[in-house]
């Protein structure tokens, strides 16, 4: 596996990549990566584009930020968005369950 190859998906293991997994080449912040995962190629490409857009947006705010810091801040921003959406989802689910019980 090359330095820029990555196995993507839940419970991904680098040593044991099934032939059934999709492989897609993507570019994130000017770096090329080959992603392999059980999701569709379109989904992997879409997720890579999201990460690329987030990294570029953060880079525009501070052009002197090094790649590693930029990657970590991107991950934290995406984690914050995920947590917010997960919390909103749970609240909506609770509301829906209460409405159904009425």
UniProtKB/TrEMBL annotation:
The keyword Nuclease does not apply. Pfam families: ZapA. It comes from the Bacteria. The keyword Magnesium does not apply. It is found in: Cytoplasm. GO terms for cellular component: cell division site; cell septum; cytosol. One of its GO terms (biological process) is FtsZ-dependent cytokinesis. Keywords: Cell cycle, Cell division, Cytoplasm, Septation. Activator of cell division through the inhibition of FtsZ GTPase activity, therefore promoting FtsZ assembly into bundles of protofilaments necessary for the formation of the division Z ring. It is recruited early at mid-cell but it is not essential for cell division. Homodimer. Interacts with FtsZ. This is Cell division protein ZapA. It comes from Sulfoacidibacillus thermotolerans (Acidibacillus sulfuroxidans).
């Amino acid at each position: 596996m090359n330095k820029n190859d990555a196995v993507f998906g839940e419970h991904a293991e680098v040593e044991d990549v099934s032939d059934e997994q999709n492989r897609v080449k993507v570019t994130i912040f000017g770096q090329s990566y080959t992603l392999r995962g059980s999701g569709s190629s379109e989904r992997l490409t879409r997720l890579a584009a999201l990460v690329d857009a987030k990294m570029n947006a953060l880079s525009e705010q501070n052009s002197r930020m090094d790649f590693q810091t930029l990657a970590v801040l991107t991950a934290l921003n995406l984690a914050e968005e995920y947590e917010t959406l997960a919390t909103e989802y749970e609240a909506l689910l609770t509301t829906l369950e209460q409405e159904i019980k009425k």
